[in-house]
Structures are given as C-alpha cells and as structure tokens.
Predict the 3D structure of the following.
Amino acid sequence: MQTSNSLLSCLPEDFIFGVATAAYQIEGAAQLDGRRPSIWDDFAHAGGNVANNDSGDVACDHYHLWQSDLDLIKSLNMDAYRFSFAWPRVIPTGKGATNEKGIAFYDRLIDGCLERGLAPFATLYHWDLPSDLQQYGGWTHRDTAFAFADYAEVITKHFGDRLASLTTFNEPWCSSILSYLYGVHAPGKKDISLTLKCLHNQHLGHGLAVQRIKNTNPDLATGIVLNLQSVYPATNNEADKAAATRHEIFHNSAFLDPLFKGHYPAEFITELAHHLPEKWEDDLNTIHQPLDFWGLNYYTPIRINADDNPNALYPKSLAASPENCERTDIGWEVAADTFEELMIKVYEQYTLPPVYITENGACINDEPIDGVISDVRRQDYLDQHISAMIRAHKAGVPVRGYFAWSLMDNFEWAEGYDMRFGLVHVDYATQKRTIKQSGYWYAELGKAQLARRA
Ligand code: IFM
C-alpha cells in the first residue's frame, strides 16, 4: 500500500491541508461576554444526555487560548483552519440584536488566522441553535430558516471579505435525523414527523442563507458540508440489498437530491411526504442553489440488514455490526477503500461542484506516556484515508483540500470528553496541549506540500 506522502505529487500544488474544529466543542466561555445558551448547553445541563454529564461550559477554553491554538495550527504547517461561528455568541437570542463582544472574538480569530497565513474556512451552523429559538420550535418551525438567513447576512457583511469560504450547515443529517429521530443529539427528540419538518426547514434555511450570502458578497465561496453515509448491504441476500438502497435514499439522497437536483427522491416522497411541512414543494427552487463547493465529512462505512419488524419505520433498515474488523476506540469500522468508493460514486450520480474533505479522522484514546502520545493507529488511519482520497482524485474527483478532524481533543457531543479525536492531546485539568505522534506526522505531510509550492 502506498503512503499518502509518496502519493502527494498526484495532487495539484494548490491542494490545501488544514485542521477543523467547531465552536461548542472547543470554545468554552459559555456564559461569558453576552453569549446566551444554545440547545447544546440545555441538552448537556439537563443531565443524562451526555457521558459523565459533561458539557461545553469550559471545553478547551479556546475562547481565551485562541492565540496559542492558532500558533499550534501554524506549527503543524497547515494552509487552512476550519472553525464554526457560535450563533448564540453573535446573535444571542437568535434573531435581532448582535453582540459586539462576540463579534470581536471572531474578529480576533479571523485576523489571527490571516496574520499567520492560515485561510479561514468558516461554518455558520455546527449545531448550537440559540435556545431562544428552540422555545418556538427551533428547526421544526419555518421561522428559524429565515432567522438563519438573517444570521448568514450578518456574518457575511461583517466577516465575508476576510473568509476563504463560508458553509451554511455542518452535517444537517446530525441536526435533523440524529437529533429528532434517534434522540442522540440536542434537542433529543424521537419523532419522525418533527424530523421531517426539521430536515426540510434546514434545507430551506440553507437555500435562503446562500441567497443572502451571495447577494451580500458574490465573491465569497459558499457551500454546505454533508456527512454522507457509505452504505453496503451486510449480506448478499435480496432483503438486505433492498434495505441498503432504502437506507441510502433516506440518509443520503434526502439531502443530496433537494440540494443538488431540486427535488426529493420519489420513494422518499411516497413514504414520507405527509410528514413534510405544508407547501414544501414551493421551497424546492429556493433550496436548490448553485454552490461554489461542497464539503464531505467521512469516518466509517455502514453495513445494513433489513428490519423485518412489521412496525419498523421507513427505511426499515438496521445497522449491522461486522465482526473481526478494525475499529477505532468509538467503535467505528476502519475501511479506507469505502471512502474512495463513496467519493467516486457520488460524482457518478450527481453533478456536483468541487469538494473539500472538511472532516476525516479517528477516535483513538491514547494518553501520554512520559509526555509522549504514540497514537500509531490514528496516524495509520489518516495515512490510509488521505491515500484513498488521492486515489479518488486520480480517478477524476475534483477534491481541493483535506481537513483533519480535529485540531485537538474536544467535547465529543453525547460522548463528552471520553472520546478523543485530536491531533493534539488536551489535558482538561490544566488545558495543556501536547502534539501527538499523528500530529507530527500530519505536520510533515503539510511541510511536504508547502515545499512543493516553494
Ligand atoms: O466531533 C464530530 C464533529 O462535530 C462533526 N463530525 C463528526 C465528528 C466526530 O464525531
């Protein structure tokens, strides 16, 4: 197997490498300088929703340590930094008045990126909906889509000329299906009807926001980040194959089709249209906006069995748990070939703009031994997946950049702080950062790419 470093010359010289984070996972300072609560503050504080009842109250204290964190990114030889704005820090009640201190924080952060030669790739929504909007139904209420578009305009007006790109949503699958159907993420509901309303209103919010961003700053590269599932039937039997197809429709096409084709999949409509908001058809043109790029977040494949429970909901699929496969410490299967296959397949099926791999990484919970973190399994994971991405590029996929998830260990949502995805270890008691072996390895890759441009 070729290593990613030996394959680097297959990429264009302007291909970028970066690291990614998200506001609620790293910033902390949750009650400081005018920030009001988000649904994640409420979900975490409610108790019983997050491992150890952890919360993002302090997280990595990046709100105060942002300068040394940006220095760290620079020391890893990165081209770019992907982060998200916290909506409740910028517009604390979700709509209306902006918060100058919150805006000043992102001014410092973005200027700090630019001073260090790091391209700022920003996300508007990485799941921290202002709680004041949730009181009125949050994403299940149509007004939230319009509040989101106003927020997009505020961000674009103030920061747009300094950003390398702006994406609307990070992984809308998580903020709709995982949050409203499986109840694993905030606000922790289990209701198919609310799920479909939330999913559609997020699509609408995306379309409205893209229009506002482009009206405000036509030059700002605009996109959306999807965590597409790479779906395989668990066996060769016909029922499992059919279930895998249904699963793909529900979990991938319900996002890709409206965004990139301007309609929902036919089977999805037959099965579920009665749960969509009234007059959903009228929104399709707004949802289907031209984009400059899209982002793909990829971690693991999913193997599917048919769910033969007569009461099972569409898509009547169950995730299988394959035996004897390599897994990361969060239990996710490692299979880099599936990443390459997904990238190629999605470009065969859709007419898409260029893609950035906006997240990819491994949960490996290795701790320091004598100050050294030898996270060999993360290094291997990254090497295999970057190699797979380069093979997809060679096969014609227009991939423009790769962001490792994550810069540093952080608040891993319902898993709290137990699960570590960082290239940099965080000691949460002291906030000490220690670059892991995988971080040094990734820094060498970044250095080799920089050297190609010298
Ligand atoms: O930590 C998350 C991130 O916020 C979104 N994508 C997946 C990561 C790992 O679970």
In short: The chain has one domain: 3-453. DSSP finds 16 helices and 13 strands in the chain. The pocket of 5-hydroxymethyl-3,4-dihydroxypiperidine is lined by residues 22, 25, 171, 297, 359, 405, 412, 421 (CB under 6 Å).
